[in-house]
Amino acid sequence: MATTDPVVIPPPPPPALKHIRLSREQYKVLEMVLAGKSVFFTGPAGTGKSILLKEIIRTLKEDPSRRPSSLAVTASTGIAGLNIGGSTVHSFAGIGLGKESKERLAKRIKESFRLRVRWQETKTLCIDEISMLDGVLFDKLEYIARFVRDSKLPFGGMQLIISGDFFQLPPVPDKTHENSMPATYAFDAQSWQRCMGRPIVLSRVFRQKDNAFIDILSSMRMGVLTQTHIQQLTKLSRPLIYADGIEPSRLFPLRVEVEACNSGRLGALPGTMITYHAVDSAGFDVYNERINKESAERLLDRLVAVPRLSLKVGAQVMLIQNVVQGSLVNGSVGILEEFLTTREAVERQLQVAVPQQELPQYLSPVNGAVFEKNQAWPLTWLASQPAITVDEESEENKVDNPEVIVVSDDDADMESGGEYEVVLCRFNPVPHCSR
Ligand SMILES: Nc1ncnc2c1ncn2[C@@H]1O[C@H](COP(=O)(O)OP(=O)(O)OP(=O)(O)O)[C@@H](O)[C@H]1O
User: Is the pLDDT of residue 416 over 60?
Assistant: First the structure.
């Protein structure tokens, strides 16, 4: 095949409901879990960590001797939580952003009947995608567990089932702190060793069948690609056409690179560009005290949401907030179809999601003020259903940022490699890349 021939990439197939028999190494982990042990299992992408975790969750849920509230299914991010039918670990824990001291968090949780009961009834806590959970937060959770459960045992005696790959995405560094705290991995947490013991490493890759490709991915994971690997990949370079129009997301190490990529892609699209300006004002912290200007600026600086967002019809966008649990979640990717006012959307019987600060999992009714406004909002086709996302403008609304962002940020979406037949990679050395 001539390397310049365009290749049409079909949309990813819906997840197959295939019956999977756990491999021997996967089964061993399940046995340890059933014996009541805390486990941390890891392994390269495609070694069946998520499948194993889902099987563990299914088995525990079907155990008639367990109360449903004894099992908490969580992950470090909303989309990862959704993938296993759970929530974020923050949401389970009831800690908000989890920035306060462990003592304050623990005290507040113990004072809340709902949260106290939740922590006390949980016997088994699952956390997926552990690589993105900060070590400082892990220590805070461990302290909260002991404090709220009145126990001296590691993690208050809870069984932990943790999965993820520390070679994948790291935690987001905390820039709200005076000196900008560097991110630490969960395995750096002081309590990690006490809670987890030795990791179990899954080694058999199921996602890809091609051994040469598995070898490349494994070397890339360690950051040690050879010239032969690079040549093998370069040979495959050719134009690609995505049948559903959704391109793989790209990750860049630096924000400036993301911005350059986004504006280049946006500039290449025809049509009128509409720019949305964020309306930001300082809100209140968890103690109902007004956030000062400096803290508000630091918080805004950390936001993924940009102060000005320019969009055009045809732009590929990503939702960056959990709006409705289970369908409109952080990470959902779609294409901007057209610009509509809320009235036009409602007349067309489209679902209008108005994110709420307090209860992001619910769709709130479209109130009169939003309905009457002539503001055009982006109607976005997301994988499941068309939805228009607007920000309700009210005095309570502290950050009025549009909920969509143009994405094109991923350098090497190697995970998609086997399933979607696309590998994006760049071989130039990247400055400031930490891993
Ligand atoms: N025991 C098994 N038998 C057959 N196929 C399996 C088995 N375990 C996993 N798979 C398949 O391997 C693929 C990758 O599995 P999974 O997504 O669980 O891997 P992962 O380790 O979680 O990957 P990542 O780190 O990228 O999230 C899936 O298509 C899954 O169906």
Answer: no
Q: How far is the CA of 14 from the centre of ligand 1 (A)?
A: 15
Alpha helices by DSSP H, 149-268? 192-196, 211-222, 227-235, 255-268
- What single letter denotes the amino acid at residue 152? K
Which string of DSSP letters, residue by residue, matches 394-424?
A: -TT--EE--SEEE----S--TTHHHHHS---
DSSP SS3 for 301:
helix
359-407 confidence digits (pLDDT tens): 443 444 555 555 556 777 788 777 544 445 444 443 332 333 333 333 2
Ligand 1 mean position, distance from CA 250 (Å): 22
84's tokens = 């296993």
The CATH 3.40.50.300 portion of the chain extends over 24-201
**Residue 70 DSSP code:** G
What sign for the dihedral angle of Cα 360, 299, 387, 91? negative
Q: Architecture of domain 24-201 in CATH?
A: 3-Layer(aba) Sandwich (3.40)
User: Do residues 293 and 332 touch, judged by C-beta distance below 8 A?
Assistant: no
Strand 279-280 versus strand 399-400 pairing type = antiparallel
Instruction: Using the mean position of ligand 1's atoms as its centre, give its distance from the Cα of residue 201 in Å.
Output: 14
Distance 4 CA to ligand 1 centre (A): 32
Three-state secondary-structure class, residue 78 = helix
Residues with CB under 6 A from ligand 1: 20-23, 26, 43, 45-51, 165, 206-207, 415
- Give the whole-angstrom CA distance, residue 243 versus residue 9: 6
Least confident range from 122-136, 140-154, 380-394: namely 380-394
From 50, 58, 132, give the residue whose CB has the most ligand 1 atoms within 8 Å, as the site to mutate.
50
Question: For the residues 131-137, what does the mean pLDDT come to?
Answer: 94
Mean pLDDT of 303-308: 78
Instruction: Write the CA distances from 80 to 7, 75, 349, integer angstroms.
Output: 30, 6, 30
Write phi, then psi, for 335 (nearest 5 degrees): -120, 135
What sign results for the dihedral spanned by CA atoms 97, 100, 104, 106? positive
Residue owning the nearest CA to atom 30 of ligand 1 = 48
Overall pTM > 0.90: no
Beta bridge partners of 125: 72, 160
* Among the ranges given (42-46, 164-168, 379-383), the one the predictor scored with the smallest mean pLDDT: 379-383
